[in-house]
Amino acid sequence: MAKRTILTAGEPILRKKAKKVTSFSPVLEGLIVDMLDSMHEVDGLGLAAPQIGVLLRAIVIEMPAEFDEEGHQVTPEELYVYCNPEIIETYGEEEHEEACLSVPGYAGTITRAAQVTVKGQDAKGRRIRTKAEGLLARAFQHEIDHLNGTLFIDLVDSPEKLRHVERGSEDETLPT
Ligand code: NI
């Protein structure tokens, strides 16, 4: 499998509504491996299929492992692969900064639901469901937006909430 080029804002495909996944085939599994490879290559937290030029409703999110002050792992890395994800429940609101692999060099503060319940299918077509909060909840909302042609910059409601940020800088927000 291979890493693919991540498209950036201005590419028309990023503005289109992605199609439902209907065939849970080895081709789909190959696509998901490519999405993971492409995301790992650039140290992203999540990726949606349209970002590598495939107009299908598939997303991946990889939550990093968490460590305590002494360097002991508190929670393991967690991988979420969703086809046809849908948010079926939201709770609360939270303002937070996010960034996107398709909008390099920027981070923006936006308001999203604090908790979401997401349902969809895994790569084999089995029904799955996740209740998420915090960073994971935001990542789901961000990736599902990609499937509908929405970028986080559309949701930033004032110019002061958008800032330049360099990849690898200390105050970087992990892009999705
Ligand atoms: Ni993104």
Q: How are the SSEs placed, and which strands pair?
A:
Layout: H1 26-41, E1 46-48, E2 58-63, E3 66-67, E4 73-75, E5 78-91, E6 94-99, E7 106-112, E8 115-121, E9 127-133, H2 134-147, E10 162-164
Nickel (II) ion is lined by residues 100-102, 142, 146, 176.
Can you offer a commentary on this structure?
There is one protein chain. The chain is α+β, with helices and mostly antiparallel strands and 176 residues long. The chain has one domain: Alpha-Beta Complex (Peptide Deformylase), CATH 3.90.45. Helices cover 17% and strands 33% of the residues. It contains two helices and ten strands; from the N terminus they run αβββββββββαβ. It has helices at residues 26-41, 134-147; strands at 46-48, 58-63, 66-67, 73-75, 78-91, 94-99, 106-112, 115-121, 127-133, 162-164. It has a five-stranded antiparallel beta sheet with strand order 1-2-5-8-9, sandwiched between helices. Strands 6-7-10 form a three-stranded antiparallel beta sheet. A two-stranded antiparallel ribbon has the order 3-4. The model has no long low-confidence stretch (mean pLDDT 94). Residues 100-102, 142, 146, 176 line the site of nickel (II) ion (NI).
